[in-house]
Amino acid sequence: LLRPRARKLGLGTAYIHGMKYATGNFIVIMDADLSHHPKFIPEFIRKQKEGNFDIVSGTRYKGNGGVYGWDLKRKLISRGANFLTQVLLRPGASDLTGSFRLYRKEVLQKLMEKCVSKGYVFQMEMIVRARQLGFTIGEVPISFVDRVYGESKLGGNEIVSFLKGLLT
């Protein structure tokens, strides 16, 4: 079901909006432009059942995961953000800036209540807070293909916000 909103209001509010309509015990979050291919969803479900995980995160940086269609600058920003987070916070997950994930609905609700970040750093905060709260995280290697239409919202302001959020 498509449940449109009046305008773009940010990722966190999109999660809250979607949770209002979700009827199952699990929620899959993915980019609507299909840069996250739905073919990986059965693997997320298998992984969740196999380890009874609270969250299953798609990873571009482990196993046969990868990124296609990004320029060098975008790859460096993503890798750099993940590296810095690994060094400073040791979250125990390999891809903190990706947004293709499966959550137990009640876990997503608890995390949304705790998270304060907006923008690029929001995905990282979700995983870091999940670890702090003792939730379990499994990973599935994915291929991420950059969008064909539209542009990334990742700019200088997002990078500064990410660094502030990381330090916070």
Describe the model.
This protein is α/β, with parallel strands linked by helices. It is 44% helix and 14% strand. The mean pLDDT is 85. It has a single domain (11-167), classed as Alpha-Beta Complex (Spore Coat Polysaccharide Biosynthesis Protein SpsA, Chain A), CATH 3.90.550. The chain starts with 10 loop residues before the first helix and ends with a helix. The protein is globular, with a radius of gyration of 15 Å. The strands form two sheets. It has a four-stranded mixed beta sheet with strand order 1-4-2-5. A two-stranded parallel ribbon has the order 3-6. It is found in: Endoplasmic reticulum. Pathway: Protein modification; protein glycosylation. Belongs to the glycosyltransferase 2 family.
Q: What labels describe this entry?
A:
single chain; 168 residues; alpha/beta; Spore Coat Polysaccharide Biosynthesis Protein SpsA, Chain A; 4-stranded mixed beta sheet; two-stranded parallel ribbon; 6 helices; 44% helix; 14% strand; transferase; dolichyl-phosphate beta-D-mannosyltransferase activity; metal-binding; Dolichol-phosphate mannosyltransferase subunit 1; magnesium
Task: Write a brief caption for the model.
This protein is of the alpha/beta class and 168 residues long. It contains 6 helices and 6 strands, in the order αβαββαβααββα. Helix content is 44%, strand content 14%.
